Amino acid sequence: MTQSASQILAPDRARLDELDRQLLDLLVERMGVCLTIADLKAQHRIPMMQPGRVSLVIERARARAVGEGLDPEYLGGVFRLVIDATCAAEDARMASGERGEA
Predict the structure, then answer these.
(1) Does a structural domain hold residue 102?
(2) Residue 51 needs a FRET pair 20 to 30 A away by CA distance; which of 14, 22, 82, 84 works?
(3) How is 59-84 classified by DSSP, letter by letter?
(4) Is 101 a member of any domain?
(5) Nearest 5°: CA angle at 91, between 65 and 100?
(6) Backbone dihedral region of 99: left (phi > 0), alpha (psi from -120 to 50 degrees) or beta?
(7) Which residue spans traverse the membrane (predicted)?
(8) Which domain holds residue 43?
(9) 8 A C-beta contact, residue 87 and residue 48
(10) 23 part of a folded domain
(11) How many structural domains is the chain composed of?
């Protein structure tokens, strides 16, 4: 009896689906923390853009990639996308004057 491709791949695809769910949950949580930070920046008149912090986070991702034997552009690029999106959300939040519960 031969297994079909989908049967062979099913356990690993299920694991990927679970990892994707966890990634999505973490990205949603990360955005919430970033919006809280935006509220604090607005409250304390701290500039939205913190280039040193952005560089630190991206370099940390790149270093982790190297340590795991991955292309640093892969994780660096992922974090660049995440940071660009959260910076845009922070900027919009601060510009609108809308505040969360910070």
Answers:
(1) no
(2) 22
(3) HHHHHHHHHTTS-HHHHHHHHHHHHH
(4) no
(5) 100
(6) beta
(7) none
(8) 5-96
(9) yes
(10) yes
(11) 1
